[in-house]
Give the backbone structure.
Amino acid sequence: MPTPIVAGNWKMNTTLTEAIALASEMRDALDTIGEVEKVLCPPFLSLKAVKDAMEGTSIRIGAQNMHHEEKGAYTGEVSPGMLAELCQYVILGHSERRQYFWETDEAINRKVRAALAAGLKPILCVGEGLEEREEGLAKSVVTAQLRGALNRVSSSYALAVAYEPIWAIGTGKAATGEAAEEMMSTIRDTLIELYGDASAMEVPLLYGGSVTPDNVAEYASQPNVNGALVGGASLDAVRFAGIARGIAAG
């Protein structure tokens, strides 16, 4: 089974000073938690500072997005090469990028391929909206997103997939462990179709959507849940460490 991952997506929160303080508060507690990969994903401007704060620890750094081109006239964008010097992971295809910035599966696919080429590990996000779930389209939507984002990606090596039901993000309305496992099983089956049993079983599958220290055990106990992509709770050092411990305990 893959090494579990708990990734904290700080989104558009924390100033530079606040990010350093939060990282420093998390450092010792997270570093002592074994059996799980811990990843902090601060805003772009804080990547270097948080990286420096985690120097000498087992904690990894991730970015929240990137452009697919290596360089060029793309004002305000950040390239894979720029990130490769600062972090190991990058979140791609987050529902907020799809919803607010109109990112398509094709655009996300370009980013996934560019990230892998640069030696970054994508945390590829997929998930359905409430209306799609109520219409019975959840599995077909997620499968289409996954296949679209992995078009012409020849290997699942260094890839992680995060299932984030859009209706559960930041709402406090988390999916049940059983519902999460059902979708994770669909994702795993799709990866097996694309890459074969051995490779697909090595891809960590993360649940994202109102994960807390109180409900993390419900997800961690599921066979195909290998970690969590955490939003709001990752801005609280105590809560995030609690989630990481829950994932490590399995």
Observations:
- The domain at 5-156+174-249 is CATH 3.20.20.70 (TIM Barrel).
- The chain has a mean pLDDT of 95.
- The chain has one domain: 5-156+174-249.
